[in-house]
Give the backbone structure.
Amino acid sequence: MKFFIDTANLSEIQQAQDMGVLDGVTTNPSLMAKEGISGIENIQAHYAAICSIVDGDVSAEVISTDYQGMIKEGLELVKIDPKIVVKVPMISDGVKAIRYFSDNGIRTNCTLIFSSGQALVAAKAGASYVSPFIGRLDDVSTNGMDLIESIRVIYDNYNFETEILAASVRHPMHIIQCAHLGADVMTGPLSAISALIKHPLTDIGLEKFLADHAKATK
Ligand code: E4P
């Protein structure tokens, strides 16, 4: 399973990269705004800075909602760095844009996926990744994991190469459940990734090992 971090914060991206388990980054317009990044040049410079930190794919989202606008933006985004994956919303013009990008060798992440039907269409259009938002489904009393499971079955039935990128991950159990269900990638906050490492018995065990070692070497 690949681990992506879902943030535009350079310090958090660097921390995750330094952990040695990071495979990529996802951003969205809200995450960019949270960092105070606005204006085309600043946005492009920020994506370039993210790409200079990580080794893997970096999803950069288009703002346009019409086909021509998405194509124009996507073509500009991929000029920034070969790591850029164009993030396109699951709307009708978005599907057309994914088909265009796919036919032209440009990788895409189809975002805002909330149903397996949407994921099926994105795969048929040639999306490199689909992003089902599991946390936001949980927020409306719908089990986000059921969506991951359903997409996995559909993609395996037809050998679709589109990777399932479990998004809107909120906590470590989301990551573990996605791993059980065979999601190819998860994207989440640094807190969820770091929480995977923690276990009180590990801390207690280590404390005892070190105390015993100290006693023996007195
Ligand atoms: C996915 O690529 C999105 O950036 C993200 O996972 C959304 O997560 P949220 O629901 O926590 O905003």
User: Anything to note?
Assistant: The pocket of erythose-4-phosphate is lined by residues 6, 26, 28, 111, 131, 133, 135-136, 167-168, 187 (CB under 6 Å). The first helix runs from residue 10 to 19.
